[in-house]
Amino acid sequence: MSLAEALELKPVESHLHPEGSFDLADHDVPTGLEEIWRFTPLKRLRDLHKDAPLDGDDYSIDVDAAPGVTAVSVPAADSARGVSGYVPVDRVSARAWAAARSVFEVTIPADAVVEQPTTLRLTGSGIEKAAAGHLLVRAGRFSKAVVIVDYNGSATWAENIEVVVEDGAELTFVTVQDWNDDSVHVVTQHATVGRDATFKHVAVSLGGDVVRASTSADYRGTGGSVDMLGVYFADAGQHIEHRLFADHTAPKTKSNVEYKGALQGQDAHTVWIGNVLIRKEAEGILTYESNDNLVLTDGAKADSVPNLEIETGDIEGAGHASTTGRFDDQHLFYLQSRGIPEEEARRLVVHGFFHDIIRRIGVPSLQERLIASIETELAGHLGLAEHVGRLDA
Fold first, then answer.
1. Which of 25, 83, 154, 160 has the highest CB neighbour number within 10 Å of its CB?
2. What's the predicted TM-score (pTM) here?
3. Where is the SUF system FeS cluster assembly SufBD core domain (predicted)?
4. Quick check: is 381 in a domain?
């Protein structure tokens, strides 16, 4: 499917996905009553959703580009942004699009097989002035590569990310939210996947005061495959929100969405909204989405809402699942009965909970870092065992 054909698809008729527009006037200031904003703590967004200036420059970007991969900053007017077909679907995204003065473009040449990951490290140095960013990643035909975006420091950051995976390409794209506890980050990511292309999107969310990440993908040809994998860990007071959308715009395409999260501490809050749209023309598709949450203490809350919108009955398979619960007492009993102390048993259960997704990331250094980060999160909560025992089943 060509870009022109993709852009001619009818608008998504869904309360979860408003019609897009580049005109800010078409995006009302959200009140929290809208379906797409009802879980988000708007008062903590520092007016990113209203009219806060997005002209801050308290950040730096360091790039470690793999051989053969180009990574350059281009003035917005001279960039190729928009090539993914994405049009802003909410006010923050539209504001960030208009305010971004430059676009960071990462390009993997056609036929290139790149073994070393390309890493972009964005470090914020202040929260007082909000800033806007725009990233465009393009994987050429039949290329294979890994791109990692690593966020750290303190920032108030609004952002759009576009990813184009051309025919036959294989791209793993990873975002690591390792912000300081005072950061606010609202990011919209959109990928378009070509014929017989493979796109793996991995979201790791650990830090920040408020993190809201909206990720969508569509298809430009048959045979495209999308994996959206996520791991998140929320501590006291943190709000971590992931919104996923797989838009099956071509026949015989696949999507798999799998996110796992853990929560601990008073007012830790996670939100996961998953949606798959199977359009009338998307015959023979296969899709599944799931979200599992492990609530480690009282005072924490996980909202999880899977959705399926199906416009054709000619599909290979479609399903969704969602679970939220505490430790499995039988698992703990089994481990303790073999001489493992209770605190260590709980750590083992958490590591086992995350293991299936972590091993599928495919970047060994990142997998090791994530395991260490989870261990640090657990070690920092000394009253874990006492609080877990008081949770309702």
1. 160
2. 0.91
3. 128-353
4. no
